[in-house]
Amino acid sequence: MSGAGLDAVLTLLDDEAIVELLSDAVEQYSPSYAEEPAMEVFAARLNASGVRYLRQPLPGDSTASDHRANLVIELGPQPSSLMWVGHVDTVPLIDEEDQRMHRDGDILHGLGTADMKSGCAAIVEAVIAVVRSGLELKRGLTVALVVGEEEYGDGSEALLEWRTAPLTVIGEPTGLEPCVDHFGYYECLLTARGERAHAALPEMGASAIHAMLAWMQRILEAGAAAGLGLSINPREIRGGASLFMVAEQCEAVINIHIPPEVDRAVVDDLIERARAEALSTHGRCELTFENDYWATGYSNADENVRLEPLRRAYEASGMNWAPTAFRSHSDGSMFHEKGSVTVICGPGRLEVAHTRHEHVSLQQTVDASRLYVAMIYEACIA
Length: 382
Prior knowledge:
By secondary structure, this protein is α/β, with parallel strands linked by helices. The protein has two domains: 4-182 and 297-381, 3-Layer(aba) Sandwich (Aminopeptidase); 184-295, Alpha-Beta Plaits, CATH 3.30.70. It contains eleven helices and 15 strands. It has helices at residues 4-10, 15-27, 36-49, 62-65, 113-133, 154-160, 208-226, 264-279, 308-316, 332-337, 362-381; strands at residues 54-57, 69-75, 80-87, 102-104, 107-109, 140-146, 167-170, 179-182, 184-193, 231-240, 249-258, 286-295, 324-326, 341-344, 359-361. The strands form four sheets. The chain has a six-stranded mixed beta sheet, with helices on both faces. Strand 4 (102-104) and strand 5 form a beta hairpin. The protein is elongated.
C-alpha cells in the first residue's frame, strides 16, 4: 500500500513537464543509428533538474561511437535491484504529413509517441521526482535510455555487458498492462531459384516468383491450421527478371511471433513441410531458407517473488495487476537471458506502433509516470 513517503514523491510530479518533455522528444526525428537528437532532449531535462547521468558509448567505429551512446542514470547503492529500460530510436518516417506531431485533446500524434518516447518521458520525470523528494534509496536503481532497439538491440546488448538487475521493466507500449510473458521472434530469409525463359513461353522456364508465392501461401495456411497462436507476417518480397523474362530468382523475408511455450523447432518444421508441398508443384525450382534472427520467448510465474514490488506498485496506484503476454519483439529476451525477471509495461498501444497514425494518450503517459514512481518506491525505497 502507498504510504506517506510515496505520496510525497507523487506530489512532486509535474504533469505539464511530462507532456512538454514528450512533445520535445517527439519533435526530434531519431530513427535507429540517428538517435542523438532525441537523446539530447532527455539529457537536457536531466541537466536542468540536477540529476546526474552518464553516457555509455557503443563499441565500434570511433566516429560513430561519438554519436551513439546510451544514457544511464544510477541511484542508490549498487548493484541495482531494479532496472528500467526504454529506447529512444524509432522506425523510419513513412509519411511526413501523416506523422507530424500534433495534439488533439488528450491524444498526442506523431512518430515515436507510443513506441516509445512516452515511456521514456514518464520514467525521466519519475526519476526527477524521486531525486527531488530527497528520500534515501535502500536498494539501487538503474534507468537506461538505449539506442538501436528497432534494429537488433545493440544498445541493450552494450548495456548488458556492463549492468544487469534481478528485476527489469521495459517501457514498450502495453496500455500499462504488466506483460510478464513474452513472445519469441523468428526472422527467416526464403530463397527461390528457377529457370529463365522468354515471357511469351513461360512453360519453357520455371518461375521463382510462382514457387515463392506457393511456398509463402502454404506457410500462412500451415501456421493458421496449427492452432499454436503464431503471428506470421510476410514482410518483404523482392527479385524477378528484366523485361520479357520468366523470373529466375526471388527472395522473401517473413517474421513470425511465437508464443513462449512453442519451441523454435516447431517453426523450422512448419517451414520445411511447406517447402516440400510447394516443391511438389514447382519441382523445377530450388527452394531454401535460413533463419536470420531468433529471440527466445519466456514466461515468468506470477508467484515469482521478484514480481512483488511491481504488484505492490500497481496496488498503490489503484491499478489492476492482471499479468498478460507481450506479443511483439523487444529487447526483453536479452535481459531475461541474463537471469533478470523482465516485465514489459508502458503507455500507448502496440497496435498503433509502426503505423502512419501512431499516437498516445497524454493522461496515460502521466499515469505511467505515477506508476513508475510507485515501482521505484516499492523496489528501492520501501
